[in-house]
């Protein structure tokens, strides 16, 4: 892991992006904020699952006005996603959003950009400039060979950034998203040393949950391992709850954040004599209710289990009809197979009660 790039921080309510703030997890609600009750319910649901910033598309003025109810009810910052019509941005600001997602180049003449910037400045509202491969201006595409590439994406971002810099506005977060992972990685790598602003990472249009998780883990994870990135959104075709879950897993796997217990489980092999998959699923469900950052192992073999998982705080390893419960490689007890999970949980809860973990 490389040392994290230090970006100019921006504030969103009680939290921030950039600087030394933790890398945050974002998602986007699928509800139109004009449906105020449904939008509020979805906001509360996503926040309870761990979304730290929630974005809403703002397609029209009714949606922009509906954001007020969402903002007032939300325990986390709300971002208004605006395209083309600067008046939607102005109304979203009046509705109390904590940040905007716009491209200064596509909301009209410069005086309209100035009007938006003048309204966010006194409120300290950050603006995220989002560049996608599908939204590059025609002249930039032509100048870079007619096809999206990393250099063209960076130039597109810099064009928008310069507009805000000329207005002496630096409360920016930048994203350079592509559906092709290598292109996304290269674009962020190229931009990271050119500007001081916080970077929002994501692979856009990543696909369904399985495929999108893989692409996002590779793209976002590679950049985070290089010290690049300040906030992330995993874009999946599915329930945004899955985006939050995957985002947590990416940050946890890199050791950048901890969101509770981590499950370690071995792949099955010819030595496995227990229902390893079933055991792992039961343990995963049980420990998901805990908030402490412990490592719990589920191993399929008594011979190798405690040794291979000796870094685990607690674990179980199965044998033929029985298994062991262990902690940091030390066997605590041997129990029948059908008592393995309950015995494991007893040891975990007893230790937590004594504040040993």
Automatic annotation (TrEMBL):
Q: In which pathway does it act?
A: Isoprenoid biosynthesis; isopentenyl diphosphate biosynthesis via DXP pathway; isopentenyl diphosphate from 1-deoxy-D-xylulose 5-phosphate: step 5/6
Pfam families named among the record's database cross-references: GcpE, GcpE_C
Q: Does the keyword Metal-binding apply?
A: yes
Sites binding [4Fe-4S] cluster sit at 266, 269, 301, 308
Transmembrane segments annotated in the record for this chain? none
What catalytic reaction does the record list? (2E)-4-hydroxy-3-methylbut-2-enyl diphosphate + oxidized [flavodoxin] + H2O + 2 H(+) = 2-C-methyl-D-erythritol 2,4-cyclic diphosphate + reduced [flavodoxin]
InterPro entries (UniProt xref): A/G_cyclase, Dihydropteroate_synth-like_sf, IspG_bac, IspG_bac-typ, IspG_C, IspG_TIM, NO2/SO3_Rdtase_4Fe4S_sf
- Any one GO molecular function term: 4-hydroxy-3-methylbut-2-enyl-diphosphate synthase activity (flavodoxin)
The Enzyme Commission number assigned here is: 1.17.7.3
Q: Which UniProt keywords apply?
A: 4Fe-4S, Iron, Iron-sulfur, Isoprene biosynthesis, Metal-binding, Oxidoreductase
Domain Guanylate cyclase residue range list:
113-155
Q: Which cofactor does it need?
A: [4Fe-4S] cluster
Which biological process terms from the Gene Ontology are attached to this UniProt entry? cyclic nucleotide biosynthetic process; intracellular signal transduction; isopentenyl diphosphate biosynthetic process, methylerythritol 4-phosphate pathway; terpenoid biosynthetic process
- Family from the record: Belongs to the IspG family.
**What does the record give as the function of this protein?**
Converts 2C-methyl-D-erythritol 2,4-cyclodiphosphate (ME-2,4cPP) into 1-hydroxy-2-methyl-2-(E)-butenyl 4-diphosphate.
Matches recorded under PANTHER family: 4-HYDROXY-3-METHYLBUT-2-EN-1-YL DIPHOSPHATE SYNTHASE, 4-HYDROXY-3-METHYLBUT-2-EN-1-YL DIPHOSPHATE SYNTHASE (FERREDOXIN), CHLOROPLASTIC
Name by which UniProt lists this protein: 4-hydroxy-3-methylbut-2-en-1-yl diphosphate synthase (flavodoxin)
Organism, scientific name: Megasphaera hutchinsoni
